[in-house]
Amino acid sequence: MSATEPDDELLAAALGAGLTYSRAAEVAGVSRATTGRRMADASFRAQVERLRRDHVRRVEVRLADLSGRALDALDDLLSDRDAPAQRLGAAKAVLDGVLRFREAGDVEDRLAALEARAGGREPVMNGAGP
Where are the domains of the chain? Predict the structure, then answer.
């Protein structure tokens, strides 16, 4: 089966959107075993990885768009002296967000250093599914 057949396109799209092998197989109308075999094919796996990266980028853009409004809402809650429980919740959300943001930045920096050390080679995918 070539990577351009409808089942493969549906399967790649489902996997690229982050579905499990079982759920992606169901969506594409193929078996779980077929999904595993397709992911063992390097070109199909590369297609899925490209779709995953594209999906993640779209999610990142959407989150960035929403983050301004979310921060404004948290700022409003932090300023509301009449709602201490909501202020506490907002403060926790802000601090948690800051920590996660910093951790993600640290992970990205470490990954970039490892990739540079490896000579810019693409990481090896093991083909194992969720």
Answer: 1-58
Measure the CA angle with vertex 51, ends 100 and 18; round to 5°: 55
CB 15 within 8 A of CB 6: no
Residue pointed to by tokens 């980028």 = 57
Distance CA 7, CA 54 (A): 20
Three-state DSSP state, 27: helix
Q: Using 50, 70 and 90 to split pLDDT, how confident is the model at 79?
A: confident
What does the block give as tokens for 22?
């079982």
- pLDDT tens-digit profile of 41-78? 999 999 999 999 999 999 888 888 888 888 888 888 88
Tell me, yes or no, if the pTM score tops 0.70. Answer: no
Q: Alpha-carbon distance 48 to 106, whole Å? A: 26
Tokens coding 114 = 């490892």
Sequence-ordered alpha helix ranges (H) in the chain: 6-16, 21-28, 32-40, 42-79, 84-117
Q: Are 31 and 21 in contact (CB under 8 A)?
A: no
